[in-house]
Structures
1.
Amino acid sequence: MLNPNFPVIYYGGDYNPDQWPEVIWKEDMRMFKAAGINIVTLPVFSWAKLQPSEEVYDFEWLDKVMDLVAQNEIKVCLATSTAAQPAWMSKKYPDILPVDINGHKRAHGGRVNFCPNSSVYRRFSTALAKKLAERYKDYPGLAVWHIANEYGNYCYCENCAASFRAWVKQRYGTIEEVNRRWNMSFWGHTIYDWDEIVAPSHLNEMWLDNGRQCTNFQGIALDYNRFMSDSSLQCYKAEYEAIKEITPDIPVTTNLMGTFKPLDYFKWARCMDVVSWDNYPSAVEPVSNVAMRHDLMRGLKDGQPFMLMEQTPSQQNWQQYNSLKRPGVMRLWSYQAVAHGADSVMFFQLRRSFGACEKYHGAVIAHAGHENTRVFNECAKLGAELKALGDKLIGSTARSKAAIMFDWDNWWAVEFSSGPSIRLKYLEQVEKYYRCLHSMNISIDMIGIESDLSAYEVVIAPVLYMVKPGTAKRLESFVEAGGVFITTFFSGIVNENDLVTLGGYPGELRKLLGIWVEEIDALFPEAKNSIVIKEELGTMKGTYSCGMLCDLMHLEGARELAVYGSDFYAGRPALTENLYGDGRAYYIASDPEEDFLKDFIGYICGAGDIGAALDVPENVELTQRFKENKEFTFVLNHNDFAVDINLGSGCFSELITGKTAQIMLSIEPKGVAILEREI
Amino acid sequence: MLNPNFPVIYYGGDYNPDQWPEVIWKEDMRMFKAAGINIVTLPVFSWAKLQPSEEVYDFEWLDKVMDLVAQNEIKVCLATSTAAQPAWMSKKYPDILPVDINGHKRAHGGRVNFCPNSSVYRRFSTALAKKLAERYKDYPGLAVWHIANEYGNYCYCENCAASFRAWVKQRYGTIEEVNRRWNMSFWGHTIYDWDEIVAPSHLNEMWLDNGRQCTNFQGIALDYNRFMSDSSLQCYKAEYEAIKEITPDIPVTTNLMGTFKPLDYFKWARCMDVVSWDNYPSAVEPVSNVAMRHDLMRGLKDGQPFMLMEQTPSQQNWQQYNSLKRPGVMRLWSYQAVAHGADSVMFFQLRRSFGACEKYHGAVIAHAGHENTRVFNECAKLGAELKALGDKLIGSTARSKAAIMFDWDNWWAVEFSSGPSIRLKYLEQVEKYYRCLHSMNISIDMIGIESDLSAYEVVIAPVLYMVKPGTAKRLESFVEAGGVFITTFFSGIVNENDLVTLGGYPGELRKLLGIWVEEIDALFPEAKNSIVIKEELGTMKGTYSCGMLCDLMHLEGARELAVYGSDFYAGRPALTENLYGDGRAYYIASDPEEDFLKDFIGYICGAGDIGAALDVPENVELTQRFKENKEFTFVLNHNDFAVDINLGSGCFSELITGKTAQIMLSIEPKGVAILEREI
Amino acid sequence: MLNPNFPVIYYGGDYNPDQWPEVIWKEDMRMFKAAGINIVTLPVFSWAKLQPSEEVYDFEWLDKVMDLVAQNEIKVCLATSTAAQPAWMSKKYPDILPVDINGHKRAHGGRVNFCPNSSVYRRFSTALAKKLAERYKDYPGLAVWHIANEYGNYCYCENCAASFRAWVKQRYGTIEEVNRRWNMSFWGHTIYDWDEIVAPSHLNEMWLDNGRQCTNFQGIALDYNRFMSDSSLQCYKAEYEAIKEITPDIPVTTNLMGTFKPLDYFKWARCMDVVSWDNYPSAVEPVSNVAMRHDLMRGLKDGQPFMLMEQTPSQQNWQQYNSLKRPGVMRLWSYQAVAHGADSVMFFQLRRSFGACEKYHGAVIAHAGHENTRVFNECAKLGAELKALGDKLIGSTARSKAAIMFDWDNWWAVEFSSGPSIRLKYLEQVEKYYRCLHSMNISIDMIGIESDLSAYEVVIAPVLYMVKPGTAKRLESFVEAGGVFITTFFSGIVNENDLVTLGGYPGELRKLLGIWVEEIDALFPEAKNSIVIKEELGTMKGTYSCGMLCDLMHLEGARELAVYGSDFYAGRPALTENLYGDGRAYYIASDPEEDFLKDFIGYICGAGDIGAALDVPENVELTQRFKENKEFTFVLNHNDFAVDINLGSGCFSELITGKTAQIMLSIEPKGVAILEREI
C-alpha cells in the first residue's frame, strides 16, 4: 500500500506555482480544495530556480509553496526537478549535452537533454535530490518521491562510447566473447581491442527507413539499447539511493510512459517502490490499448497497484488533432485506470501554463482562471466521488488466469530484424492478442519473460522471437504442469544476442511445440492466404483470412488443427496443438484476421473457467480487483448510449451511488459502476 | 510615381550579358527593341566578375553593357549583385558561410548562402553597392536600384547567436524581462546571464514534423524569426543607405516573394522606396491566390503602385511540373498584375541561360536564339500594347472598402503553436476569405496590423491569434465608428510574445466580440460538425458544414446568428454578431465550407455598397484603379471561352483597342479589357 | 571463355567458413557436392581476420579452407576481402573513414565505408590483394579473382575535394575552361583559383527532394559523379594491377549491381576481364526488367558472356517483403540468366549466417543445417542439370539486330535536370522501350553510347538528352547506311557538360531527325494528351494516350506520322519520320501509352526480319545464344500454367531432357527448355 497513513485514492497532479505570481497561489488552493484535490506534484521543472548557480541553492520559494500546500492539507508528490538542467550548467559543462544518433552535438534547451553518462549530470542531479530530501524529510505531507521526469533519451557521445565499452567488458569479459556474441566475423567486423568498439549510430551501422530504425548488426544495436536503458536507470538509481538514505519510508517512483520503447521498464521497475505512469491516449486509440498499458504497468511489479501520475482532464497539445475529452470521458478513463489497478488519479496539469508549448494542454484550471467551466466541474465531481470511496479499493489487486508475455528485448530484436517483413511490429501483435481477450472481458496480466507462471491457466507469447536462457525450460514446466501455452510465427528464432538457434526453427521451443518450421514466407501487403479449420472447435470453423508471414512447417509430434488454404503450401499446417505433459502448446503459423483469434481464444478459454465475470454488451469493459474476501467489479460503459447489465443472481453494493445492485443494472452513456461483494 | 521623367509601364526583365559573349549583346539589343522592352535588370549575380579579388574591382565589362543599353534607350534597374558572394571571399573569410538549422556549417555555393550577421558580408556588400552607385550615379538610364536578390536565409552560427543576444537585450533590457516574456519558468529554462541565451534550432528547441517547423518555446522561436528577418533587413539597409547617399533620387527596391514566410515584409517595406516582387504561380494556383499576393504587395506600402519584378514568359524550371503558359496567359497575368497595382511588367529572364539550373526557365529569347517563337511573339505584342498605354495608368491606385488583415508575426505564431490542430494553416485561412471576396469581385486591400482602418467599411482578420499592443483598441474604435469587423476561431488568444491573455478567450477582443470562448475542440480530418443558421440572413440559411476547430462559447452581449448542429455542443453559438458603437463585430467559431463564407460575406457586403463594379460571369476578374477623376476598370477573362459583359448604362473607353465600349463588351478567351471613364 | 580448362557453367556462390567452426567445414563440403556445386567465392569479408594488425597477416585458416575445397575439387572465386577494412585500421587512420553528402564524418562499421581516395585504403587494400595473389597464385582451383564487393559509395571529405580539384585540372586544364564548362557565370560562381572548387554536397549545391537528388549546378554535379565513379575504379584498378602482375592468366572481376546509378559501369567494364553481377529482383519486378539488366551486363563488354555472381536461392532479407521464390522460380531465373548470356549460376549464400543482418537471407544450406529442405533439393536438382549441360553453352553469344542505348552520364544528367518535369526518370523510359521489345521476344543488345552500331538494323535511344562528342555523327552514319534510329522527347538537348546546344532542339540530332522543337510542355500527372495516327501503319492506327512531356515541334524535312489530339498544339506533329540516306530516323515527341509503343515497334520491326524466333504465348520468354554453327533457343515459361509451343517445321534437341523436340513442345509451369539446332 502506497501510504498506510493516508489510504485514499490520490487525486491531483502536476502543479507549477513557479510559473505564476504568489497572488495566484492562494487562489490555486481554494480551487484545489473545491476540486477535491489531495495531492500535488512539484517542482517538476524548477532546477534552474532551485540552483541558480553551481554554488547557490534557493529553496525559499519552494518552502513557501509547500507550507501553503501543507496548510491546505494537500499531500506532495515531491519531484527532484532533474529532467532539465539549468542553462548555466550546460554552458559551464558542455559535456553534459548529448550527441544524437546523427552525430549532432545538441545545444542547451528542451528537456531530458543531457547525456545519461555525464558525470556532471549525475553529480549535480544526485546532489539536488539529496538537498531536497534533507530539507523536506520531515515535511508532513511528503507522500511520494518523483525522480526527474519521463526519462528516455539516447546519447552517442564519446563519453557514452567509453561507458559502452566498459558495459560490454563487464557483460562479456573478453574480446573473443564479444566477437562471438555479436557474430563479428560477419562483414569483417572482428575486433582485437576494446576501443575498437564503436557506438552504433547513423554514422555507421544504423539508418532510418520509413521511420523504422534499421541496423546492420543486431547484436551491437540490441546491446546499445540495453546499455542506454541502463544508463538512464543509473541516473535514476543514483538519485533513488541518495533519497532512500534520508527518507527510507517514503515510496520513490519516476513517471513511466506505458509502451515506451527505449527503456526496459521491467528492469526499471525493480528499482522503483511504486510504478507510476503517464496515460495520453488519443481520442481514436482503442480502449483495449489503454487497458493493456495499464495492465502492463501493473505487471511491471507483479500486480502491485500503480499510480496514474498524469492524464489530461480535457485535451493534449502535442497530438495532431487535440480533441476534447467528451463529457464523462475523463471520469470514465480515470475509473478505467483504477479498474486496472491504479491507486491514484492525477492530472497534468492543475493550472494551464500561459506560455511555451504546453499552454494548450488541458488543465483542471483553465486560462479563464475560474471554476465555472465544464472541465473544472467534471474534475470536482470526480474528486468528490473518489473521496467518498475512501480506502475501499486501496491495495486491492487483480486475480488473472490468463497472461500475455511482453519483453522489451524481444521488441527491440523483432524490429531491428532485417527481414522477413517490415510489416511485422511486435507491439501491434501483442495489442492484437490483448484486444481479443479484452473484447471477451477476460482478465489479463501483462507479464515479463521471467515472471512466475504458476498462477495462470493460459499464457500467450505473441512473436516470442527471442528466447532467453531459461525461458524455454520455464515454459515447458508450465505446460507440463497443465498450462496452455500459445505462441506464433517468428518465435523461438534467436537467443538473447539475436543469434539464430541452429538446427531448425522454432529453436528452443521446438520440443514444446512439436513442430519444425522449414521456411518463412513474407506476403506483400495486398496478398492473403487462409487458415482452413480441419475439425470444428467451439465456434472455430471454416476458413479465416491470414497474411504478412506464413510459416511452412512440419509436424514433429504436434497435430494440425488447421491448414493453409492456398499457395504452394496449401494443405500444410497453419495451426498446431502439441500435448505436452498435462498441458497443451499451440502454434499459430501466420497473422490471422481477428475473428480467428476470437474464436480460437474462445475455444481455449471456454474449456477452462477464465471467462468474463458478467455477460455484458459490446464496448462495456469489465475488470475486477480483490482485497481479502472482497471482490470489486468495475463496469465501464464505453458506449455513447446507456446499457443494461444482467447481474443474474448476484447481489452487489454499488460503490459510487452507495446503492444495492440486483438483477439488472442500468449504466448511463460513458458511465461507470463499481460492484462490491464478498466472496 | 516611380519615375516622373519616364512615366510608362516598365517592360523588360533580368538580363545576364556576362553569361554570353559580346557578339550576342548586339543581337540582344535588336531583339529587346523588337519586343518593346524599355528596361533591363542587371547585373544580378556578377559579384565575382565585378570584384575578382579583395582589392580589385572590374567594371569595364559592365560599362560596355550599360553603354550599349543606353545607346538603345533602355533603362536600367541596377542590381547590386550581392546575393552571391565570390568564391574567393568564402574561402578567405569562412565566417561568411552560414550554419543551417541542423547545425551544419554550409560550404560555398548556391546563392543567398551567407550569414546575414557576417560583418565581412556587410562590409563587402555595402562597399560594392557604394562603388556601383559612385560609378553609375550619372548614368542616364538609371531607373531603379535593385539590392541583392530574394533575401531570406536564416543562420544559426555562433556569430548570429551573439547578435541575437544583443538584439534581445536591446528589445527587453533585462534578463528578468526576457525570462518573463519567454515564460522561461516553463521546463526550467530560467536564465541568469545573457550568454545563456541559445539560438533555437534543431539542436535544442525545434524540430520538423511533416514539414511543419515545431518548437518547444514559441517565444524564443518567434523572436528568432523576428531577429532573422531583421538581420537580413540590416544587410539590405546598409546597402540602401550607401546608395541613397549618392543617388538620393533614384528609387531603391529589392525583389520580394509574395507570401514568403521567413521575412516580415511589412517591416521591410518601410525601408523600400518601392515594393517589387517576383510572381511565380504554378499553372494550378487559383487565380485568387495570385490576386491576393498582388494586393498584399500593394498593401505593404499602403496602396502605392508596385513593380512586378519577375515572372516567367512561359514556364518555370523549379516546379514539379513546369507546364507552358498557354497562349494569352502570359498577357492575361501581366495585366492582372497591372490591374492590382503594378506599374511594371518584367520577366525573369530575357535570354535563356544555357547552363546550370535555370536553363529550362522560360525567357523572352529562347535557346533557339531568334524571334520566330510563340513566346517572343506574345512578348512583343504585349510590349507594343503597354507602350500604347503610355502614362495613363501610372500612379493610379485602388480604392477598396474592404480589407483583410495580414500579419507575419501572427503567421509564425499560429504555425509554431503546439495544438490544437496541425491542420490550421494561417495562409490557407487568409486565402479562403480572400477567395470568397474575390469571387464576388469585391475590391480588397491586404493590410497590416497597424494600418489605418478609417477608409474601410469591412475589415476581416481571419485567425487573429496574436493581438499586439494597441490592436484591440484600434479595432474597437473602427467598429465604434460604424465599421464591420469579422474574425474567427483561434483569435485573441495571445500577445506579441505568444503569452496567453488570461481571463478567457478571445482575450483582448472579448469586449468587442461580446463572447467568451471556454474551450476549443479539434476535429479529426474526417470529422465534421455543422453550422445551423437561426434566421435567414440574405442567402444565408439552413445548414453548412464546418470542421477543423470548433470553439465552445458563451454569449456576453453578442447574439447568436447560427449554432452548431451536432456533437455535445450542438445548439451552442457558432456565429455571433455583437453590436458595438455604430458598428458590428462578427465571430465565426469554426472553419466553415466556402458556401457559408460566400453567403455570409454576401450578406455583410450586400448591406453596404462594396460589391463588384459590374456584373460578370464566373472566372472573370474585375479590379479598378483610380487616378484623380479617372476610373480604370480591368476586366480579365480567366476562362477558356469568350464572355460577354453587360456594361449597363456605362460608357467607357477601352484602352487597349482604343475603342468605345457600351452596352455589351465581348472578351475573348484569356482576354483583357481596360475600361476608362471619368467619375 | 572464362576458363578453357574448366568449360562448364560455374555453380556455387559466397562461402563464409570463417563465420563457422571448423567442424562445420567438412559438412559443408559434403553438402556442396550433393548440390553439384563446383565453385565457391571466398573470403569476401575477412580482411580483419587476414590482417589482424598493420604488420601481421594470417593466412593459415584460409589455407586450411582452400585445401579442403581443393580436395573436394571445387574451384575458388578468390575474393580480395577489401570491401570492409578492419576496425584497427579505421581507429589508427581515421582519414580512411568517408564523409557523407550531408557533411557527416562516418564512424567505423557497415561495409564499403571507406573514402575511395584514401591513400591508406589504397595502400592496404592493394597490399592485401598482392599478398593473396602471391600466396595462392599456384592454387590449382583458382578460377576467378573477385575484387572487393559491390563498390559504390561517394565521399565528400577534404581529401576527396583535393582529388576532385586534381581530376578537374587534369580534365579541363585551365580555370577559364572550368568556368566555361560549368557555366560559372551563372549565379556569380566564377572562380579564379583551383582551390575555389568545392565538392557539391548538401552543404551547398545539392539537396534531396522526395528522394530525388537535386542540384543548382548540373555541370559540377555531373563531374563529381564521374569523379566518384572514377575514384572507386582507381581502387579497383590498383588491386587489379597488383594481381595481374602475379597471375596474368586468371580472369579478374568485381561484382556489379545491374542498373546501379552511382558507377558508370561501361567505363568500369573496360578494366574487367569478365563482367559479373548480383541479381536481386523482388518478387514483383517485371521479368523484362531482369532481362534488361542481364542484357546490359552482357553489353558492358560487347556481348561477352558474363557471370551471375549472386542471386538468392529463396528469399532476400533487405527488401520490404522478402517472399520466398516459389517452387521452380529459382531454377527458372537461373536459366534466364544463362539465356541472356551468363556462364555461371551463383548464390549468395551457401550457408546461412546465424547472426547480423543477413541471417534471414536465403541460402543453399538453411539454419536447419541439413539437406532435407525444399530449397536444397531445388538447388541440387539444378546443379545436376547444369552439370549435364557440360560445355555446350559456354562461350556462346547473342546475335541481336536491335539495340537500346544506355548511358550513365545521360542518366545522371536527365535526373539532375531542374525542369521540365520531375516525373521523367531515365531508367523507367529505357525499361519501357525494352519491355515493349521484350514482350515480342525481340533479341536486344543493351549498348553504350560509343558501341559499334554496324551490326544492328534498329537502334533505340530513349531520352538521349546528352549528346556527347561524335555521337551525332555516328548515328548519322548508321542511318545513312540504312539503319533505323528511334529517339524521343528531351533528346539532343545538351553536350557532355550539360550545356544546351544552342540554335534549337534537338541540337546535334536536328539534322538527322529533320525537326525543330520549339517548346517543351510538362503535363501534370493527371493530365493527358493524345497521339493521333494520320495513316494506318501496320497495327498502328487511331488514337493513343500520351503525357508527361509534349514537344511542340516544326518539321524541317521530316514528315509527320501522327499529331497531337488536343490542347493548343492539337494537330502539330507528335511522331515524325525522317528519311536520311538509306535509313530512317524517328522522333516520338511525348511519353505514350505502351500500346502505342508495341504497335510502333511492331511496325518498325515487322518491316525488317528482327522478330521472335518462335511464336509463343504471353509471358513465355524466348532468347537465343549462338556458338559457331549452333543455335540455342531458351524457352522460359514465366506462367503459373503449362504452355504448348508450336515448333513449326523445326526439329530441335532439347538439352535438359536430352530429347528431340518437334512440332509441339509442352513446358510445365515455370518450366524451361533449351532447344539446340544447327544453323
2.
Amino acid sequence: MANVLRNSAKFGFSGVLSQLSIHSRHGRECVSPCFSLQQRNNSTSPKIKVDLDSSTGVAVLRMQSPPVNSLSLDFLTEFCINLEKLEMDRSCRGLIITSTLSKVFSAGLDIMEMYGKSPERCGEFWKAVQEMWLKLYGSNMATIAAINGSSPAGGCLMSIGCDYRIMVDNPRYSIGLNETQLGIVAPFWFKDTLVNTVGNRAAELSLELGLLYSAPDALKIGLVDQLVPEDQVLSTAQDTMSKWLAIPDHARQIDQCVYIIYNTSPLPLDHARQMDQCVISVCIYYI
Amino acid sequence: MANVLRNSAKFGFSGVLSQLSIHSRHGRECVSPCFSLQQRNNSTSPKIKVDLDSSTGVAVLRMQSPPVNSLSLDFLTEFCINLEKLEMDRSCRGLIITSTLSKVFSAGLDIMEMYGKSPERCGEFWKAVQEMWLKLYGSNMATIAAINGSSPAGGCLMSIGCDYRIMVDNPRYSIGLNETQLGIVAPFWFKDTLVNTVGNRAAELSLELGLLYSAPDALKIGLVDQLVPEDQVLSTAQDTMSKWLAIPDHARQIDQCVYIIYNTSPLPLDHARQMDQCVISVCIYYI
Amino acid sequence: MANVLRNSAKFGFSGVLSQLSIHSRHGRECVSPCFSLQQRNNSTSPKIKVDLDSSTGVAVLRMQSPPVNSLSLDFLTEFCINLEKLEMDRSCRGLIITSTLSKVFSAGLDIMEMYGKSPERCGEFWKAVQEMWLKLYGSNMATIAAINGSSPAGGCLMSIGCDYRIMVDNPRYSIGLNETQLGIVAPFWFKDTLVNTVGNRAAELSLELGLLYSAPDALKIGLVDQLVPEDQVLSTAQDTMSKWLAIPDHARQIDQCVYIIYNTSPLPLDHARQMDQCVISVCIYYI
C-alpha cells in the first residue's frame, strides 16, 4: 500500500482552492447562475467527470485521475467545486461516486502533499481534505459510493462519508483506514466517521493496527453495505438510489443533520452552527 | 403503514393531562394514599388495563384501544398516569407491557394529533409523547415489552423504552421507527434510544430510510431481544421478568441511571438533574 | 462467584501505595535511575512477577497471588508500581498480562476491602482500582490480556483495559462485569470501557443483569477477541504482540489517546489534560 501511495500522482498546487469559499454552504436556494450554467453543461475536467441525469435527479461523479485517483490538493479542489455545484443545483437530489480506473477507487491522500512541504501548505492541504469530508458527510443529497476497486486511507474516508457503500465482490480489492501502518495518525474526524460506521471496537482495532479489509471482510464488519459483481456496481447503485429518493428529502436531510451534530464531537464551529440551526427549527416542539 | 396510521383512533383532547404533574418523579417513598388505593383496585380504564400480581410484584399493562392502540393525547395521558401509579407503588417491581388487540401492539403516534392543530396543542401532544418515553426509559421498575403484533413508529419507541423486548415470531409483524417515510422527522431522543439499542449504523440506515423490520429481521439487528410463538409471549415475559427481579433493585436501577445520563445527550434539565443526584451518591468513592 | 470472592485473599493494607505518586505519568523520557535499575533486574515480588525480554521489548506480567489473584489494595499497589516501571522503561514496548494460577485469571476486587472499612480506607481502595484502570487503559505500551482462567468483575475490567484479549477456549472459564449480581454498582468508567468493547446494548444487558459469559459466549459478543487452546494462550499472545509492535509506536499511541479522550467522559481532569496535550499537537493541522 505504501508503494501504491508513493507511486501516486504528484500534481503541484494549482491555486484553484482560492476559488472555493470554504464556508459557503449557502442553502440550496441561492444558486449562482454561473455555477448552474456550468452544471447544466455537465462540465468535465481532467480529474473528475460529472454526469447529471435531469430526469432522475441523480448525478454520477467519476474520478479519472491516473494512476490511482490520489487525493492531491488539485484533485480535492476540483472534487469540492463539483460537489458544491451539485449541492446548489436544485435538480440534483442524489450523487453516486465511482472511478473510471481499473482496480482502484481511490488510493487516498497524495503522500507527496505531506512530504517536505511548508506548514502553510500542509495546512492548506488538510483544510481541503476536511472540506471534502464536510461536504460529503454533510451533503443534502443522498450519496452512494460505488466502490469499484481498492479504497485505502483517504479513499476509505471518502466512502464512509457517503450514505451507502456498494463494493465490488472481489477479495483482491481492499478498503480501510490504514494510516497508522504508514506512521500517520488518522485525525479524529476520520475516527468519528469510522466509529459511526462499524462501531467502536472494530474501529479501534482497525485504526490502531491500520487494517485493510478485503471486500468480503469489509462487508462482515459493516464497513461496506453490499457486495455485487463488478459489472453490476453502477446499476445497483442506481437502483439503491431510487429507494433513497423515495423518502421525502426534508425528513431524510434533517435526520442526517441530527446524526452529524451529535455523533461527531469536534466539528468546526461554523459548520456545526449552521447545522444546529436547521435542527433547532425541528426540535421546537420537543424540548 | 401510512394507511394504518391514517385509519387510527381520532380521539379528541380530554384534558386529563392537566392532572399529571409533569415533573413529579418523587422517590418511591412518597406514595400518595389515593394513588395507592386506586392501584390496589387494579383500576381499569377504557384504553389501558393494569393487573398487578402482589405476590410477584409484577404488573401487566394491557393496551386495549381499538383499532390499533394509537398514541393519542388521551391514550398517552392515561398511559402515563398508570405508569406513575405503578412507579410509586412499593409493591410493584416489574412491568410487562402488551396489547389485547389482534395483530397490533401499537400503531404509534396518532397522526391526527399533528394535523391541523394549533402550535399549543401540538406542543402539548409532543410533551405527552416525551413524558411517556421519560417515564418508561427512566423507570425504576424492570420493564419488558411483550410485543404481540406490529409496532411501528411510536409503538417502536415504546418498545425500545423498555429494558427487554420479546416479540412474536411472525414475519408478518413488523417494528421500526418509520417516521421518515411519512415525511416526519424522528426527534433526537427517538434516535438516541434507537442507537443505544441497535448501534449507530443500523440506526442511521433505519431512520434515514424509515425502515420497518419483520420480526426475524428485527432480531437480527438487535431491535428485539427474543422471538417466541404467539401463545408464549406473555409467559416468556413473566419468566424473563423473574430473572430481572433476581437482581438487587438498587444496583440495577443505578446502572440504568448511569446509562441514561451518559447516553442520551438532550434530556430535559430537571430530569437529568434528578438522575445526576442518584448517581453522584454512588460515585462518591470513584472520583 | 460470590463464594469465590468471599474466599478470596484478605491481605491488609501495606502502605506501599504512598510510594506511588498518583499523577506521575511523566513522559517516558524522565526515567528514574532507581526504577530502571529495579526493572533491569526483572524484580519479582510475592504477588506479581515481571519478565522483560529486552530483545523483543515485550514484558510478561504474571499474577501469582493465591488462591484467586484478588485485587486487594496490596495487590493493586504492587500491580501499579510494576506497570509504572515498565511504562518508564524505554526498552519496553509491549506488555502481556497473565496468571500463574490454575483456572483463574483474576477473581476481581477483593470484597473484604469494601466490607466494614472506613470511608477513607474505601476511598483509598477505589483510588487504587481506578489507578490500575487509568494506567492500563492509557498505557503507551501495546497491552494484551492472556486470559488463562475465569475473570469476573475487576478481572474483566483489567482485561478490557488492555488493547487485545486472548482467552482459553474452555466453556468452564467465564468473564464479565457481574457486580450487579452482588448488589454492587459498576462505576461509570467500568461501563464506558465495556461499551467501548462490546457496544451499548450488550453492555447494558450485561451490567443490568450482572452477566458472566463463558469463553465461547464472550467471543460471540466481542468481549474477548480470540479463543485458543490452553497451552497456546501465551505463545499466541507473543505472536499477536509482534503484529502490534510492527506498527510505529507514535501513531498507535496517539490513536489510542484520541479514543480515550473522546469515548470516556468522566476522566479525572489531570489525566485528561495530559492526554489532550498530546492530541492537540497532532491536530494542529486539522482544525
